[in-house]
């Protein structure tokens, strides 16, 4: 790899010299630390951690600041806290600042504790109006004054003072800034999404009121179309990502502009756009976070609303100090606002719109942000261009801002193309790999670098999987594997060597023990799939049960005599069955051989009362089970289905002219299939398959999954390059990139949920093979996608 060394020190020095050239560019210094200041960290019974900073006691009592969380916006801890600390220390008053970390009960406890400890003023940022009203009522009963800070409590009699910005104006600024940009778009109509804040936060309602007041006339006139209008519970950025991914998928990617209510939600929109290879679009934000400013610099975000937080915090601190000292605050309040019951004295502040044209004169000049915190990593080039007046670096549709033309990024693939098992399972994965690499590289690869895959023959033998791994471990950053045996054998080695793996064999313990491992499942772990099938059965038993079956569900599992075959029944999936009242019979193992006789195993299950047969096998073994149940004359007495790999065209290939025998078979399918021809990714795969001229028997879900997965891998690599540098590309940075992205779309075929400790998809649908009048089998979805039960093994 070429290593590009950026001279950060020189660039930062230059930027700081330019930034400090004006008299207003001096950053606000951090609050001074004195010998009288102490910091204590305490843990609430809810395990939430709060930080209290106090000065020496004062006779007039204490001010308690109750912050809401750290997740909805970086401002609360990064900005509001430090500004309050500086103001209270300068005034010499005693104070405490705590953070409820999103838990209303914790905030209630914090308020009670503050009152007990002598607080005379509470400065409250409520998590919702209901819990806020309860805190205000308790404070009033104790004779404690309350300031609603930033968020108005709209239930109950209200606070003594409200300090905030004109929040309708905040939203209106978003609308007015984006309006001419949207109008200039060529689309007709312009398709707009409104991604709103928390439904329990009155501010979110006011923000929406503001930008909707600008957008509504366009909706009415028909030149703009409102595609979707959704609130994000708790301002949760990960939920926002999921919501917007779903909006994009439903809209077929056809979205022209987004009103996002803050920078965190805007960043979720950007992540979704990048993961689907879509261009930047007009996008609003709020809070002027460092990430928001960086997104504006890189062209992914159009604007952010700057509510000078220091101004807001200083105004609230001044009101709190006055109330603490028994002084009149009427001279500080410029207006009133009705909370639904009373007119509340209102210190109303004016927000500002920040675009790329006025970053320097607003957030930098105020010392609210510094070039030093903004101009890091990939954003150095943008800062340098902004300062010099040169054109901004190009941001491509796939989110790249570095040119790696001439480079090659090589991944590794361990599988079988030789030997008896490979001859049976086919080469669909190899065909798909070649086809998708051609498409990716013809469209620019990864930031200009060619993406390549080195194939390593293993014959699907575990000892050969290990031997090949040992040969490639020093150069590999990502390895694709295809068997559960490989997953089990390689997982500890991958963790030790910090090499990322995408595994088609999703053996639960190998993926989730330890929870921070380097193996990502290409499909949900087998116990999740089994538990999901049981849940679907329980909910639909009256409709799908055989005529001979009663109300009790008895499931017999037949599976290969290896780690794959044993993957469905685990203590965790058994617990799901127990909760549903479903009986699971002991596993019946079958040999991994095309000519294996499974009549004995099936008869054992039937004799023990099985009215459901679940296949934890694949290919020829599924065909054996189907044929044997038909031969035994019991097909109509049982529900037959299985894990995702059993619902694959190779099963139908083995049945050949007897394909009608598969009529009625159910599969747990965590992705779209070839039948979903309205999906762009499926159509793209169909075109590539046809162009390849492959045997029709290779048109399997294996091809489709491999094809789509490579796009998701491309996005993960690209994020790692952008965030951590091409010179640092490794299994470790790839895993970090996957965690950063959280929800990674495989071009809409399915989604990886890689948030936190998640290592595999966790959604599926139930599909069924249905015989058609012309004798063909049709693949039909009989359920919507649903969340699978969580059957991960316990963390060690």
Q: Short description, anyone?
A:
This protein has 796 residues and is of the alpha/beta class. The chain is built from 26 helices and 30 strands. The strands form seven sheets. Strands 20, 21, 22, 23, 24, 25, 28, 29 and 30 form a nine-stranded mixed β-sheet that branches.
Describe what this molecule looks like in 3D:
The chain is α/β, with parallel strands linked by helices and 796 residues long. The chain has 4 domains: 38-159 and 309-350, Response regulator (Rossmann fold, 3-Layer(aba) Sandwich), CATH 3.40.50; 171-307 and 354-388, Response regulator (Rossmann fold), CATH 3.40.50; 408-524 and 703-753, Response regulator (Rossmann fold); 526-669 and 764-787, Rossmann fold, CATH 3.40.50.2300. It is built from 26 helices and 30 strands. Strands 20, 21, 22, 23, 24, 25, 28, 29 and 30 form a 9-stranded mixed beta sheet that branches. The protein has a 7-stranded mixed beta sheet with strand order 4-3-5-6-7-13-12, sandwiched between helices. The chain has a 5-stranded parallel beta sheet with strand order 16-15-17-18-19, with helices on both faces. Helix 15 (428-442) crosses helix 24 (680-692) and helix 22 (620-631) packs across helix 23 (649-655). The radius of gyration is 30 Å and the shape is globular. The protein starts with 7 loop residues before the first helix and ends in a 9-residue tail after the last strand.
How is the main sheet built? 9 strands, mixed
Quaternary form: single chain
The CATH homologous superfamily of the largest domain: Response regulator
Radius of gyration based on Cα positions? 30 Å
Query: Termini distance?
Result: 38 Å
Q: CATH architecture of the largest domain, please?
A: 3-Layer(aba) Sandwich
Low-confidence stretches: 1-59
Number of beta-strand segments: 30
What is the overall number of helices? 26
Report the CATH C-level class of the largest domain. Answer: Alpha Beta
CATH topology of the largest domain: Rossmann fold
Give the overall shape: globular
Percent in helix: 25-40%
The domain count comes to 4
Name the beta content range: 15-25%
Quote the average pLDDT: 89
Structural class: alpha/beta
